[in-house]
Design brief:
With 111 residues, this protein is an all-beta fold. It contains no helices and eleven strands. Strands 2, 4, 5, 6, 9, 10 and 11 form a seven-stranded mixed beta sheet that branches. A four-stranded antiparallel beta sheet has the order 1-3-8-7, with no helix packed on it.
Length: 111
């Protein structure tokens, strides 16, 4: 399984970004997919997850600002992030089944 994240970058507080995760090498539809992040000096934490049936779970810190979605036909997962805060600064990782991981994409929220 290969996972490739994209869409990170530098954004001002209050701004938005959309992350994408492209999956290959497996039947994407069968997996629980998730976004994790690891901020400077912090442990990796779950941001949001989505099952193949579309059941969604969010970390409380992002539940009213981030939206996770997936396109099973395109083997892609997305994370729409709005009202970004400096504390959202982290490397964001895509995960399949909590077993396979992408290399991560850096999100920096700073003025």
């Amino acid at each position: 399984v290969q996972l490739v994240e994209s869409g990170g970058g530098l954004v001002q507080p209050g701004g938005s970004l959309r992350l994408s995760c492209a999956a290959s090498g497996t039947s994407f539809v069968i997996y629980l997919m998730a976004w994790y992040r690891q901020g400077p000096g912090k442990s990796r934490e779950l941001v949001a997850s989505i099952t193949s049936q579309g059941h969604i779970n969010y970390a409380p810190s992002v539940s009213d600002r981030f939206t996770i979605s997936r396109d099973n036909m395109a083997n892609r997962m997305y994370l729409q992030m709005t009202s970004l805060l400096p504390e959202d600064t982290a490397v964001y990782y895509c995960s399949a089944g909590d077993t396979w991981w992408g290399q991560g994409t850096q999100v920096t929220v700073s003025s």
